[in-house]
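Subject: for your reference before the review

Hello V.,

The reviewers asked for a structural picture of the protein, and I figured it would be easier to keep everything in one thread rather than splitting it across files. Below is the amino acid sequence we used in the manuscript, unchanged from the supplementary table.
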Amino acid sequence: MYSNLKKTHLKKTHKYFLKFFVILIFFIYFNYNIFKIYAVHENQNVFPFFGKIKDNDENIFQKDCSWNYKPVLRYNDLKDRIEIIYNYDYRGKMREKHYTDTNKIHIYKYDDENKIVSIHDFKNHELLKTFEYNDQNQIIISRDHKNKFQTKYKYNKKGQLMAKIKVFSFENYSLKKSIFHYVYNDEGQTINKIYYADIFKRRNKFFSFINGFKKRNFVLCTYKYNNEAQRIKKINHQTSSIHSYKYYDFSQIYEI
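And here is what came back from the structure prediction:
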């Protein structure tokens, strides 16, 4: 008799313990996800720990992209101050860039396929830039709101960005302001940005001939990475500026 009562009591205890354990797990999971959403949408300076995003996630352009490679801010080493603060949504998509020098905030908007389609000025409610894509979902053209400034993007067979051509157009005139080429290391990281040319073109053979003397070729920017493949430095050789990048799981800013 006593033995049966003891067994019944143990079964009830195990049953209650199992229910309590399930409720506890659910409570932790629920609050963790609520915290993730709140941290990004309400308190944009808080970045909770996120797991690695899956390779087939359409929200990410490049594979093997995780929160470890998304900077929280860009720091000007020479001026000793923060210049840009980056904010993301809970999926890891760039939502805002806050430029601290000018106090401007740029808002990034996406389509149903999670491709960036436009950038807006938050304070002035002004459209700044729009984007166009090819069949491989690669950005091929970006335009300003007046369609005067355009940037064309060129890729190699690996899908790496190889060149940017910034063009200013006005009536019969076309000014290729800047042509940039990108150099990669064996790990697929951008290590150099090369300034190639500054060409002014008109519908006139004479000016086209003169432009042949304006071509240049020098390394504009150099990029450095740490052992975790995070970009930590951008060195602009033209302006002699040095920028560091801080990540959400870093406790310091890397400096030379």
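For the response letter, the relevant points are probably these. The chain has two domains: 1-43, 51-247. DSSP finds two helices and 14 strands in the chain.

Happy to draft the paragraph if you're swamped.

O.
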